[in-house]
């Protein structure tokens, strides 16, 4: 992997992590285009995840700090409950998820699912409920939407925002809850991958720190832009345009790999 490829992958990670376009799916496509084996590039993937996590922590720093100062509150409980389905699915289907992640032929299914979800999201009526009105049952269902998004091609943000709005929550609060949910999910994914590296130190050999730094910085900058763009566009009910993008992406995918 050269410097340009590292920057491109950082750009893809930062943009697609927060827009409803599936970061895992797009990274998989570009890994194939560049001829990079994702399994051998595990350390770089972790660095990209760290890069995209930084702007998330910055943008929602006040909300995070409020949770730290007062951890025993309903919002904390909701985030914990919403994370449980993801943990269960990951533990039960770890091998299957890992195998599917490297199969580009699985992506069309994920793209179609996300496209349909995004089309439905803009048809949901506007609601006035805030994040505090989310029930524990709602949190479980939203968590199930996040768990499904472990499969490449299915957007985590698109699925969780739509599920939260379907629970009667207004668009702004739905986007905020979705992004806050992604923090424990992202940290958990990084810890899981770090455990793989600790079990196989050979994955640390031959690291190019210039490429790692370039990918990290690019993911952080583009991630910050994507978060703010997503927060603005959700208010205007424009997610259907991302569904149109998925049609375009599906055509490109078929041309490239089928």
Q: What layout of secondary structure does this protein have?
A:
Elements: H1 3-18, H2 23-34, H3 42-59, H4 61-69, H5 74-92, H6 94-101, H7 107-121, H8 136-148, H9 156-166, H10 171-199, H11 209-235, H12 240-257
Describe this structure in words.
With 258 residues, this protein is mostly helical. It is built from twelve helices and no strands. Helix 7 (107-121) runs parallel beside helix 9 (156-166). The radius of gyration is 18 Å and the shape is globular.
Number of helical regions: 12
Termini Cα gap: 25 Å
**Which oligomerization state do the chains in this entry correspond to?**
single chain
How confident overall, as mean pLDDT?
86
How many strands, what sense, and barrel or not for the largest sheet?
none
Q: Indicate the radius of gyration in whole angstroms.
A: 18 Å
Broad structural category: mainly alpha
Inertia-based shape: globular
Query: Helix proportion of residues, in percent?
Result: over 70%
pLDDT < 50 stretches: none
Instruction: Give the H and E element order.
Output: HHHHHHHHHHHH
The proportion of strand residues reads under 5%
In total, the number of strands is 0
Describe this protein with a few key phrases.
258 residues; mainly alpha; 12 helices
Put the structure in a nutshell.
By secondary structure, this protein is mostly helical. It has 12 helices and no strands.
């Amino acid at each position: 992997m050269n410097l340009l490829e590292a920057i491109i992958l950082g750009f893809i990670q930062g943009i697609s992590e927060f827009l409803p376009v599936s970061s895992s799916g797009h990274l998989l496509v570009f890994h194939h285009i560049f001829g990079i084996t994702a399994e051998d590039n595990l350390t770089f993937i972790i660095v990209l995840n760290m890069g995209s996590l930084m702007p998330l922590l910055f943008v929602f720093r006040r909300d995070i700090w409020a949770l730290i100062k007062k951890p025993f509150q309903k919002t904390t409980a909701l985030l914990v409950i919403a994370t449980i389905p993801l943990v269960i699915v990951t533990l039960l289907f770890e091998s299957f998820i890992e195998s599917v992640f490297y199969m580009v032929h699985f992506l069309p299914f994920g793209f179609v699912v996300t496209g349909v979800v995004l089309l439905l999201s803009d048809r949901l009526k506007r609601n006035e409920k805030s994040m505090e009105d989310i029930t524990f049952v709602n949190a479980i269902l939203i968590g199930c939407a996040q768990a499904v998004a472990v499969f490449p091609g299915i957007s985590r943000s698109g699925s969780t925002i739509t599920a939260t709005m379907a629970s009667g929550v207004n668009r702004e609060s739905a986007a905020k809850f979705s992004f806050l949910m992604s923090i424990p999910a992202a940290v958990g994914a990084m810890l899981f991958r770090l455990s793989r590296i600790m079990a196989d130190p050979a994955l640390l050999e031959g690291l190019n720190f210039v490429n790692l730094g370039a990918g990290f910085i690019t993911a952080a900058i583009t991630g910050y832009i994507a978060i703010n763009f997503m927060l603005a566009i959700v208010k205007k009910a424009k997610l259907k345009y991302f569904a149109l993008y998925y049609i375009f992406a599906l055509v490109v995918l078929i041309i490239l790999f089928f």
